[in-house]
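Service request form, structural biology core

Requester: graduate student, group of Dr. S.
Request type: structure prediction, single chain
Budget code: on file
Notes: please return the result as structure tokens.

Sequence provided:
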Amino acid sequence: MSLVKQLWLATSFLIVTAFGASLAASLVSAHSYYQEQLALKNIDSANSLAITLSHTEKEPALIRSFLDAQFATGHYQSIRLNTQNEQSFDLRSEPTGDNAPAWFRTLFPLNVPAGQATVSDGWVKYGALSVESDTTYAQTSLWVTTKRLFLWLALVALFAGLAGSWLVRRISHPLKDVIQQAEAIGERRFIVSREPGTTEFKRVVRAMNKLSKRVETILEGEARALSEMREKALHDPVTGVANREFFISRLDALIADGDTAVQHTLVLVRVPDLTALNSKLGHEKVNAELRKFCEQISETLKQRQHDYSDAFLGRLNGSDFGLLLTEFDDIPGLRERLTRDIQLSIHSELMQGLRLSVCTFRPGSSRAEVLMKADHLLAQAEQTQQILVVAQDDEDNIPFHSATEWREAISQAIRNKELKAEFHPLIGRSGAPLHQEAKIRLKLNGNWQTAGYFLPWSRRLSLLPLVDSAMVNHLCTLPAQATSEPVVVHISTATLMDEETSKRILDAIANCTVPAQLFRLELPESALGIGDLRLSSFIHSAQQGGSQVGISGVGHNLERISRIHELGLDYIKTDPVYAQRLDSDSTTQQYLQRLTALAHSIGLQVYLAGATSRHCAQVAWEAGFDGVTGPGIAKHQDDQG
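Core staff response, request fulfilled:
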């Protein structure tokens, strides 16, 4: 039995005991009082009547008449006079009914002794007088008094119960926090709670808080070590952006993606005559200018982050930089913004000779083909002395001619329920699927299109909440037996920011034919940047309903690992870029081994995204991953099927 129930029972027992004892004591006292008063009345009545009879003529008829008159005017049960000459006058009345129930009269009878007095005739004793008062009215009065006592004591007990309830709630409230913290620690979520006012609970919470802070310190230290390891291995030491190997791995991950309809953008930037600038300005100043240049590009991208899924900046060599914009095809807009930013910074000697090329590519292309195309455009920019050159075919490759047409096409497809889901497996160590990732498809212009075809414009037109909600509703219409594995639904950051849509999604999952336990809601890593209250509320509500919640794209911002831990997520999925280097780069293997160990220490499952082959999956098992997904896994499953 829980402590709260024991407190409730103890409080109830005390209140009932106090109520019963008070009522019993009050009734016994009232009963004794009534008996005492009736006994005194009997004595007073007997003495008064005896004095009167002593001064009366002792004619039997006169005495009989006097006693009859006295009996009729008073409330007597009996008057009895026994004379010395053995003459007896006995007057009795039949007990009249009272309002007290029989059980009450039996339980509290009024047994009052008769009042005794002596009647004299001069100096001689005439007889003995006995008087008994009628107890009917006293019994009724005692019953009325009992009901009043019961009512008042019941009210007192009620108020005492309310006060006890408030006290139990006040005592149990910090206990709930203690239980929640203990359960969280049991789930390897080392949260910190506010110390309650109760001394005993305060000591327990303080001890658990110390444990949580110690674990948090360990996590932060390990995250810093991993971040430093990642920075040294994968980033340029001068500018802090990705080095060539990491950038190429990112490009390979995008090329290996199975969604061939998605379009990405590659921007190459060249700083000409970097050697001459180093001689003229000095290495320190040139390095500072390069860092400033990279920061400026990052700042420009942050201002337009709703236009693309992800931005990745890297240094390919001393003078060349590369920028990858995922799910982005607004080439005219990009050219306009980059040209404007460069012209605003033309005062910098580094920026004066800057040359850029912009081209798009799709998954399935070869790395050499993409880089050769971008490099050719860059050479063209240098030859023609243009700041920026864009591939002409990229500017014209637009399915719809305006944002209005895109909005109408996407909205109409959702209104007409022209959408479906394709499932891609994530397998465990045994090779069996752990869950299926649902990828949305829309029918646009009569053709089924993959997510990469319309998601960039959905993001740009703020239609992602509509798309996510439609996907969940579609999955909820599937028969319960349609899939035996859990289904992963991708929820965008924009949807999380839309409180109404996120609530509708949770309600739909709670009420659909597919059990909530078969849903896994997957959030992007960027979602960790939104408000704590909104994100934690969404995650808690989803998990309360039975769904699991995970984060995808993990690996770039390891300082957020403590945030993932505090939110109580169920799993994390790495960025696909790491799968490109896992089977060939020992540093990446060590990095991911430490990442999986760190995640397992706080109770998280870790999945690898972007695996291109079964060999990559085998290396992932050795690195400690719990599941693997990617184009190589999906292809292998299809071949087996």
